[in-house]
Amino acid sequence: MKSGKCMSIQILLGLLVGILMVARVASHDYGDALSKCILFFEGQRSGKLPSTQRMTWRKDSALSDGSDVGVDLVGGYYDAGDNIKFSFPMAFSTTMLAWSILEFGHLMGSEHENALESLKWSTDYFLKATSVPGKVVAAVGNPKGDHNCWERPEDMDIPRTSYLVNTTKPGSEVSAEIAAALAASSMVFKSVDSQYSNLLLQRAFQVFQFAYQYQGSYNYSVGEGACPFYCDYDGYMDELIWGAAWLFKATNEQKYWNYVVENIHYLENSVKTESKKAVYVGGCFADFGWDGKNAGINVLVSRWVMNTSKSDPFVSYADKFFCTVLPESPTRWVTYSPGGLMFKYGAKSIVNSQHVTATSFLLLVYSQYLTMFNRNFQCGDVAVSPSRLVQLAKVQVDYLLGSNSMGMSFMVGYGQKFPQRIHHRGSTLPSIDKYPKRLKCHDGDEFFKTKDPNLNVLTGAIVGGPDISDKFEDNRSNWKQSEPTTYINAPFVGVLAYFKVYPNS
Asked: Which domain of life is it from (predicted)?
């Protein structure tokens, strides 16, 4: 084991490298990056595309979704480089896109309207996915069949199976996350379209009640529709608390606050009890992503209770989370690459940039809350100010945009050098405009195997990113590094909006 002195020297060297890296690269065009970050969602659209579609190499797809269960399920987003609509990560992406707009929408300028359109594409779908009382759509499309085929979404010939949870086969995590997404989005649209906002909020009430009343994990209820691709590893209590917190924020109704307070203790330990009827997992206070919501809950709630008698345990756990992230903290859990990119220890997913963008978002949001209440906090003997959180977020953002030893942006289409061979079916294969003939399941294999760049540029897509040694393999076979996802981009929308206006923070 290395001595504390050696570890301290390593931390300082890592910080110095990161600072020098940022200093020698010209300031980034955060406004351009924001535009592209939002544009990416158009490349992930499923369904009938509107006349305003800007990513024109994409065409209509999956127009019969839901026909197997007699429900219109056309629309929504493909989650990543595949052609499946997974509701769990899609709902988290929706919640984060809504939160990005709520916190930073006033900084987006002309991109605010595009952000609203991206959000509404998702909420329109979730209104369909929750339209039958007592049922919630967990996924559309057979995941195993899809992952066996490399084909355009416009050509799909795999079964478009609809996977539903219901009162006898519940799915509390996916349902509660959808409720959170609808509640958060209702606040976004409140001043834009009050009727639509009210519809979203009323549906959020219904879906949360379903998630709460019929508790159980969708792991058991939909089987291959969830696992192994988006199994719930942390259990569903964090989603129930997360959903209640968003409903409280949207309504100020005491019953939702009571639910948060009365159940938060489930997340304060890592004891697990499991059966087919209930799964409670304390998880970790430092988790935040499509699966674990713990850190997000504490940051979200901290604004309401900071500097009050109700601050515990939310503020103390939020502080503790950021102490696991800061490089100089004596209780740091994450590690950093030589160039300064954070890597989360013990991450369930090895697509690292999802943790970078989600954590960067929380850093900025919490810095605002701390400033609002004129508050700092301590990590051992290290004092932490709001500006320090902003500084760390900026290092992460700049790294992803090209301030690294490779001089590579990990956002497709941004900068002079970016990934050319991303793991994404639609981007890899020729568009219907140029190749109208149908491409069947394995007809796209040759395009996957070639070392040539992808034929279509999925502008704004943020890929998984480099390894911990700052090395990146621009190879679509290496999906861990080269695949983009909606839940990588969604929190980055808010982050880029902030730095668009405050580039020198």
From this structure: Eukaryota
